[in-house]
Specification:
51% of the residues lie in helices and 3% in strands. It is mainly α. It has one domain: Orthogonal Bundle (Non-ribosomal Peptide Synthetase Peptidyl Carrier Protein, Chain A).
Length: 120
C-alpha cells in the first residue's frame, strides 16, 4: 500500500473531508486525534485494503512492548527493548534516546504505517 491509500483510510476513519489535509509525516495520534477505537478501525480497514492478516498490536507493538519487562522495566527501555525499537522503526525514524509513550506516539504517521506494512 502506498501513502495515498493509507491517508485515504485514515481520513475516512477520522471523518476528515479532505485527504490532502493529512501530512504523511505527522502523528495520526497526536496531530489528528486518532483514538484507540479509531486505531482499531484503522487497522481493520488497512487489513482489508492490503489483503494482509495482522492485528493492531503487530501494526503498533509499542504498548505490548511496554508491558514486557524484557523490553521495558522500571520506567525505562532495557537494552533489548531499545534494540527492538530501533528494529521496529528501521530507518523510518530516529528513536529518541529515552522515549516515553508520548514520544513514540508522535512517530505513528502514515509514513510509519507504510513502512510497517512492508514488514508485515
Amino acid at each position: 500500500m502506498n501513502a495515498n491509500q493509507i491517508s485515504q483510510i485514515a481520513a475516512s476513519v477520522l471523518y476528515l473531508d479532505d485527504v490532502s489535509a493529512i501530512d504523511t509525516g505527522k502523528s495520526l495520534f497526536k496531530e489528528y486525534g486518532m483514538s484507540s477505537l479509531d486505531f482499531v478501525d484503522f487497522t481493520y480497514e488497512l487489513k482489508a485494503a492490503a489483503n494482509k492478516e495482522f492485528d493492531p498490536d503487530q501494526l503498533w507493538p509499542i504498548n505490548t512492548m511496554m508491558n514486557n519487562p524484557s523490553f521495558y522495566a522500571a520506567g525505562a527501555w532495557t537494552d533489548e527493548g531499545r534494540a527492538e525499537l530501533v528494529r521496529l522503526f528501521d530507518g523510518h525514524a530516529s528513536v529518541p534516546t529515552a522515549p516515553g509513550a508520548e514520544e513514540l506516539y508522535a512517530l505513528f504517521s502514515v509514513g510509519y504505517v507504510e513502512h510497517r506494512l512492508r514488514a508485515l
